[in-house]
Amino acid sequence: MQTKGKSVAQKHDEHHHINKPIAILGAGNMGSALLKGIINAKLTPPNKIIACDVNTEKLQTLSAEWKVRTTPDIRKAVQESEILLLCVKPQTLSKVLKVMKESIRPGHLVISIVAGMRISFIQQMLGTDLGIVRTMPNIAATVDEGAAAVAFGMSVTAEQQKIATSIFEAVGEVVVVTEDQLDAVTGLSGSGPAYIYMVIEALIDGGVKMGLSRDISTKLAIQTVLGSATLAKSSGLHPAILRDQVTTPGGTTINAIHELESHGLRSMLIDAVATATRRSEELSKLMNNL
Ligand SMILES: NC(=O)c1ccc[n+]([C@@H]2O[C@H](COP(=O)([O-])OP(=O)(O)OC[C@H]3O[C@@H](n4cnc5c(N)ncnc54)[C@H](OP(=O)(O)O)[C@@H]3O)[C@@H](O)[C@H]2O)c1
Fold first, then answer.
1. Which atom of ligand 1 is nearest to the CA of 138?
2. pLDDT recorded at residue 250
3. Residue 10, pLDDT score
4. From ligand 1's centre to the CA of 87, what distance in Å?
5. In CA terms, which of 74, 125, 207, 282 is 20 to 30 Å from 198?
6. Is 90 near ligand 1, meaning CB less than 6 Å away?
7. Which distant-in-sequence residues (6+ apart) come within 8 Å of 92 by Cβ?
């Protein structure tokens, strides 16, 4: 979202300042990434953030490093905050929602990153008419290069929409979708990092096959993916144009492209996104029927 060519610091300066107490329920990979993003973007001061987790060692580390408040008690976290970020695993969500219900207030904004769990499920479990936002971030949020989609429940106000969006903008790019599009988002950017790691791995092996050391191959493969993505983002040009620009007639690249086309690279990736989307739909149906 309008971040072309902007540094992380510039992006942070433009953020909507929330300045409200935020509880992060589940301070694992994603919960900690969001916590760091919120602090770095100065969305709310560290003393207004309360990290809640069953793992007290994790809480001690976060408190020492980021000066946030911590508690293993979900009720306390809910009572002392206005924004609740649900970052637990899907199989833990029902248990956490049951405890949250005891302290939830109508003004609370609930933002869930829990894969597959629908807004209607959360609404039903919490029993109050609340602003609920469902999102699908990805693992690159841990390095402020995430790709996240957000979907707003019926009762989410314009101000709450801004709050939810700025939390994910603090750790990368954000798009707004309808809830039924989140399965496709899961198939593309949620699972996408795994596809790209396979591409990187294969490029490394290609270099090694042709006699480069593994170290050199690894450095070149990673930087090639990073540089290509950065150029595509900063230029705003269609990837096909960028590809044409490096494809000399009769040269090396066109020969490689022919090879990739004859093995169906593009169809394979389209099928991968479609298959992952269907699996996300299936899992979501199973989980929400529990
Ligand atoms: N990782 C991704 O790429 C990704 C992408 C999109 C969406 N998501 C979603 O993000 C959510 C979190 O994923 P993650 O990778 O961050 O998982 P994670 O690292 O396992 O984090 C979950 C945290 O919640 C804690 N927890 C367990 N039970 C709890 C309870 N009753 N109260 C409070 N905290 C509790 C866990 O502690 P213990 O470890 O001690 O159990 C852990 O620290 C998942 O729902 C997933 O669907 C993840």
1. 5
2. 97
3. 61
4. 5
5. 282
6. yes
7. 26
> Which ligand 1 atom sits closest to the C-alpha of 114?
45
**225 touches ligand 1 (CB under 6 Å):** no
Q: What is the pLDDT of residue 227?
A: 98
Give domain status of residue 1, yes or no.
no
Check residue 16 and give its pLDDT: 74
Average pLDDT over residues 68-90: 97
- Residues 160, 259: one domain? no
Residue nearest to atom 25 of ligand 1 (CA): 26
Q: Which pLDDT does position 287 carry in this prediction?
A: 86
Q: Which two tokens stand for residue 139?
A: 């693992």
Choose among 118, 71, 109: nearest CA to 90: 118
Q: How many domains, in total, are found in the chain? A: 2
Cβ 192 under 6 angstroms from ligand 1: no
160 CA to middle of ligand 1, Å?
23
Token pair of 257 as six digits: 């492209």
**152-167: average pLDDT:** 96
User: Which of 154, 182, 210 finishes a domain?
Assistant: 182
145-160 burial string, b = 16+ CB within 10 Å, else e?
bbbbbbbbbeebeeeb
Residue 48 domain boundaries? 8-182
Tell me if 61 CB under 6 Å of ligand 1.
Answer: no
Query: Can you tell me which atom of ligand 1 is nearest the CA of 92?
Result: 28
Taking only the tens place, the pLDDT of each residue in 233-277 is: 999 999 999 999 999 999 999 999 999 999 999 999 999 999 999
CA of 27 to the centre of ligand 1 (A): 7
The burial of 198, by beta-carbon neighbours within 10 Å (0-12 exposed, 13-18 middle, 19 or more buried), is given as: exposed
- For the cut 50, the answer to whether the pLDDT of residue 3 exceeds it is no
Nearest CA to ligand 1 atom 33: 53
Q: Does 175 share its domain with 203? A: no
CA 238 from centroid of its chain's CA atoms: 24
